[in-house]
Amino acid sequence: MSLDGxxxxxxxxxxxxxxxxxxxxxxxxxxxxxxxxxxxxGAIAVFDLRLLGVSRRLPVGALARHAxxxxxxxxxxxxxxxxxxxxxxxxxxxxxxxxxxxxxxIGAAGLNILLFHxxxxxxxxxxxxxxxxxxxxxxxxxxxxxxxxxVIVCGRLIAYV
Length: 161
Hints:
By secondary structure, the chain is mostly helical. It contains eight helices and no strands. It has one domain.
């Protein structure tokens, strides 16, 4: 089956039709997407700012135990609602340049998270209370703080591009 066929099939599913055709479902799904995004990016931003030296007295590990579960929960809500929003108009949205850039940026952010958690974060006990985390941790924070707002901007641009 071609990509267009898959997109048309997805658009024809019951969940897609419910989101697209319901009186309030598209707006409520979009609202859930924004709430999830706010929770996720808020938690990530607090953590990234700590890596960059804000609130230096707060141990990185302690903050991670509190903030990262919120970022995961926000991501789950954002991913689920985003998939539903996409499915409602998949044949149009898939070819939207802003959407395509958004997906690439999400992939880049995910790779940054993977590299951080499988790399420097494994040694967090060595620098947990250090005023200045290692350069690779600070670099990951900068990439994150640049990437997630760019994802948000691209998401907003989907309706206008």
